[in-house]
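dude i think i finally got it to work??
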Amino acid sequence: MAWDIVSTVLGNSPMKSSGKLSVGPASGAQYQLFRRSRLRLAIWYAGVMGTILTLLGLGVYQAIAHAHEVTIDREIKSVADAVHDAIEATVSSPGQLSRVPPQLLPDLCLSAETCLGPQNGPPHRLQRTYQYDYYIRIVDPASRLLATGGIRPEGLPVTAPFPPWQALQDEKGQDYHQVALALENESQEVWAYLMVGRSFQDFDQYLSSVRWSLLLGLLLSLALVTAASWWLSALAMRPIYQSYYQIQQFTADAAHELRTPLAAIRATAESVLRLPHISDKEAQETLTVVNRQSQRLTTLVSDLLLLSRLDSKQRPLVKSACCLQDLISDIVEEMAAFAIAEEIALAIDFQTQVPVVVFGDEEQLYRLVLNLVNNAITYTPAGGQVTLTLKRKQQQALVLVSDNGIGISLEQQAKIFDRFYRVDAARAGQAGNSGLGLAIAQSIAKSHSGSLTVASQLKQGSTFAFSLPALP
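look at this
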């Protein structure tokens, strides 16, 4: 009587389901949350990469500028040394500057003369070196101008010869570098200073082109980095979203599985409370229903706790040497009564006479194989057969649990190790299966560095293969 009332209540309840409780995609608020998180992550990616690229670009620019500046200064020094040596070889006093051969310095202009610009003269090795890029100034120790040569920049001040290296600007703001060398006579007395300088206009133009090239390259790189950051942030958020979705779905499934036995217990209790009198038979039926549903709740909670411990690794594995022949024999003995009740033939096929020993937690390995056998019996029609096969391949122990039951479609094979997933929910529900057995088996296999796979065809049966390292 009590169970009929429970069946009626559950039959009209929205909690009854033919399959897994579906959880749709994230709601609008959740979508906005993930989108904002993705946007922040993309901004951080782009910001960090932009900063790195900017610093790298500045470093490259500084390296290029320094290298070219050093090269030009060396060139200035080389020209100054050549002119210095040539003047010292022919002139030993300011009064002799007019006797400098035109072939040596064809455009040399004494301070007393009116110099309009560089003069044209016969080709000479020094002339080609400095005529259109360099200026030459000869000053006495008091910094009075004695002669000039080469280009004559307008508004460029005549400075003292100290320090030897100087950076100057003309009236137009154009930069120049110059070096000062002492001119000595045969008595090692300094009678004048030679100043050789060069315009940095071409250098500034080159650096300007480098800056524009680096800026355009940086902007293009930032555009690519921004696009890549948005794509990478999507990849980074995908496992987070999947984990969130799985937790959401797991919570909904767990709530559904817990509500079913609780609803049954509540419906049974309410039906009994509405009766003015209850017979011993009715009381017995009521207690039987409550006890069955309590056991279902206890099993479900235990499975959830076991999965939680396996995921968080709170409970360390108690590993020892385990003989798989003994373990399989014990499982067959335990499941024999269940197999007989379901009219299923349960067989063992040991393909090796040598004991197959593995190193693992015997209790968990027992639970793994037991879940596989229970699953095979549950989804095999009456008159079918379940076979446990043990073999050894090189250093691997292989346990096969085969049946000739309803089979699993290719699409479902990718989901059967998910929690609360059941191929045939109606049949599994009748057997009290919560859909956690294969999930627990998979977790145990991973914790033992093993693998658990399935091969199946619809209406032909399934084979679950569990392998793990074997001891020599």
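The mean pLDDT is 83.
im so relieved honestly
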